[in-house]
Amino acid sequence: MSDHGTTPRKPPARTWTRLGPGALSGLLSGGAALAVAELVAAAVRPQAGPVVAVGAAAIDRTPAAVKDWAIRAFGSDDKLVLQLGILAVLTLFALAVGALAVRRRRAGAAGVLVFGAVGATAALGRPDAAGVTDAFPSVLGAIAGAGLLYFLAGLLPAPHREVPGEPGEGWDRRRFVIAATAAAAASAGAGVLGRALSGASGREAVASRENVTLPSPGSPAPAVPRRAQVRVAGVSPFMTPTGDFYRVDTALVVPKVDATAWRLRIHGEGVTRERTLTFDDLLRREPIERDVTLTCVSNEVGGPYVGNARWIGVRLSDLLEECGVRPPSAGGPADQLVARSVDGMTIGSPVEDVMDGRDAMLAVGMNGEPLPFDHGFPVRMLVPGLYGYVSACKWIEDIELTTFDAYDAYWVKRDWAREAPVKTQSRIDTPRPFARPKAGTVMVAGVAWAQHRGIDKVEIRVDDGPWQEAVLAAEDSRDTWRQWSYAWRAAKGGHTLTVRATDRTGEVQTEERTRTVPDGASGRHSVVVTVD
Which of 277, 280, 386, 512 has the maximal Cβ count within 10 Å? Predict the structure, then answer.
């Protein structure tokens, strides 16, 4: 024996020789579970798939401040980021259970079943759950994945075996590679087939939209004034193209509703004549056409989540009156209208605002075409002057009259205000932050909005100087934003440009800076530029 201790024995087969194929087995099993789940979800409904169900459950349980951050950081890509994050977590989980299965096959397979239980629980807990069948994709996918992992783990070298020579000798690599390759190919095929079937399930909805012919409005929107758009490069177009219109909602899978099968139920307190309407029922009514600017409550000061479009639809107050509904000011018992979407979203609007004469509507068209699926086809609700989370229910299928004391809608349960009129806001579109314009006359321009009140004045301040009145473009209506411009005689150096608006009630846009929660951001937009 050496004074320096015994010479260590040559280690057994290297750990990575077992764990590497084990982790790969877990990854293949996780992929198989997701592929089978996708295939089953195509037969049940796409919203029942585990990634969508878990993602929707995560959205429901995410604090309002985190949701708000995600919208600011990722915009309309927030849902894609969430799904990629879920897939990343599932990948790590699959690698871990694969490594576990090397030593404990049953424990590793059981880990895959845990994945199925989480997905099934999430699917069944959704407000739009269609019943026990929503659990089938996650359960059947997990069973397939667990079975595959148990089989593949049985092909790996036993962890207690010590094989002399090259690590990994003593197990049938060829058989494992053949089985793993076959599993990967089968999973890929199942996934492709599932996606194809899911796409086919929405064909009837797509066909129903293609067959829609919007009626001519009985009350058309006035022509947009020729001078509503300022002639300054860099300013947002007065009418937002449909493809550029912001989208903020919680739907991981955009509902594709067949207009021929769509129904809307109106019921609740104060409804003396309950009604169920079809899409054709709406199209047969005399529609109105209006230009309305919509704003998301998650829009930060100077943010992009505001857009202006031409909408066509049915006046909501007329429908409610025909059902016997009276506003609270006329003695009606209900002060809240709860709109429900096909995806389970609930949005609560003040009945008084819906019935006070403004152009609240059930919209069927946007910018001269049937609503896009992203924006609520076949029917969505909108109420000028209110933030979207208390007015703009997409894919609407139910209207219930109730009270604010009796029911809290989705966002109110998550710390947002019950009532949320749009705040007076303005934005500098040009010059952009950190721009470097040349000294001389620089055109500063942008938009301002105070829906249902209208914009009366916009002012610009350079650094700490006095407020200077900007030139307002022509007004389309008090429900749309208004563009403005200011010819600034720019001197060399760094400068801060700040804008504020005054609405038609005389309220000046506050300088008090607040975040979006609970009822919309406030403050004044400013940009820093360097004049060369």
Answer: 386
